[in-house]
Design goal:
By secondary structure, the protein is mainly α. It folds into 2 domains: about 1-110; about 110-195. The chain contains 9 helices and no strands.
Length: about 200
């Protein structure tokens, strides 16, 4: 068994232990684990497979997170394209990833985190993939959803979203200011701070 597979088995067993204690805490813990693996997979290709396993498990076992997990799985295909040498393979992975993300958004169209991951990934893609309108739509919808108190969102994702809009030129200054205010408000009202 390769080292990443051993780590995946340990992580899956550990997250199963957490789920036995509390299903909600187990799902949140797996999502936190998946997010960390997703972020590290951008620089470390070896984390891709473990991240896929975590998000596949979430997709299969937690109906409330199914769409979000599907978006992450599509995003992981696009991250895999970054690590691939051949242009044709890169293009195929990106197209497959975009299809998976769109499918995930159809399952969870009002999931703030799924919209953010989709919008941020699409923003990073070259123009010839034609995702510019998707980015605008995602961030417009995120702004609307942040204005809806019944839409929960993890405060860590809200912080990441704020960092992204501060660092990238994805919105106009007035849109950035509006979304910043909503993020600050939501971080005060909702969510939990993940470790």
């Amino acid at each position: 068994m390769k080292m990443p597979a051993k780590i995946a088995v340990i992580l899956i067993l550990f997250s199963g232990f957490l789920q036995a204690q509390s299903p909600q805490d187990g799902a949140a813990s797996r999502m936190d684990e998946g997010r960390k693996l997703f972020a590290s997979s951008v620089d470390d290709e070896e984390d891709l497979e473990t991240a896929r396993q975590v998000f596949t498990r979430i997709r299969k076992e937690d109906a409330s997170l199914r769409g979000r997990a599907m978006v992450y799985l599509g995003a992981l295909d696009i991250v895999a394209a970054k690590h691939t040498f051949w242009p044709h393979n890169k293009s195929s992975l990106v197209k497959r990833g975009l299809k998976k993300m769109e499918k995930g958004l159809r399952v969870a169209p009002k999931d703030i985190e799924a919209r953010f991951i989709h919008g941020a990934i699409c923003y990073q893609l070259p123009f010839f993939f034609g995702c510019g309108d998707d980015v605008e739509r995602d961030f417009a919808l995120i702004t609307s959803l942040l204005n809806t108190p019944s839409q929960p969102c993890d405060t860590v994702i809200l912080r990441d979203m704020q960092d992204f809009i501060d660092e990238e030129d994805v919105l106009t200054e007035s849109e950035r200011n509006r979304i910043r205010k909503l993020i600050v408000k939501r971080r005060a009202e909702f969510g939990r701070e993940s470790k």
